[in-house]
Specification:
DUF4149 domain-containing protein; 0% strand; mainly alpha; membrane; 160 residues; 4 helices
Length: 160
């Protein structure tokens, strides 16, 4: 019986982390991508090059933290084997992995190249890549909400 309680406590602890990590990730994207990023350009004395330089630094760190959260969630999703995720949460995890990889590998490089041009004094004009990045963040946020709800449901006692 004590062994069963210990296993149950461990399952609950892991499920709590599986709930908390998506909520944390969602909050970071909401705060940085949709609050900080647009507001920084309204601050007195901020120029476009200065705002882009700050943005590049902030989003590089955000992406590193996102990668760390995704790695932690991945570990908690497949370990221990007895309570690994399956079904809907597995598909949500895969969606997060794909969107994050696309955002970092395909979207960030052209955004960084455009920032380089602006910092060198060029005017490269409008870019579709900002909208693609925003779309990636919106899809990520949607996946995170569904994942958090699914994880919260896993914490509920099983119906008998």
């Amino acid at each position: 019986m004590p062994e069963q309680r210990s296993a149950q406590r461990r399952r609950i602890a892991i499920e709590l982390w599986r709930f908390a990590l998506p909520v944390l990730w969602f909050g970071m994207i909401a705060a940085i991508s949709f609050i900080e990023a647009p507001l920084k350009f309204q601050a007195p004395g901020i120029t476009i090059p200065l705002g882009l330089g700050i943005g590049r630094l902030v989003f590089a760190v955000l992406n590193l933290v996102e990668a760390a959260i995704l790695l932690a969630y991945t570990i908690l999703s497949f370990w221990p084997l007895a309570i690994r995720i399956s079904g809907r949460r597995l598909w949500l995890w895969l969606g997060l992995l794909l969107v994050f990889t696309f955002k970092v590998a395909a979207v960030r490089p052209p955004l960084n190249a455009r920032t380089d041009l602006v910092l060198q004094g060029a005017d490269p004009g409008q870019s579709v890549w900002h909208y693609v990045y925003i779309a990636c963040d919106l899809v990520t946020m949607l996946l995170l909400v569904v994942l958090a709800v699914s994880s919260a449901r896993a914490l509920l006692p099983a119906k008998r």
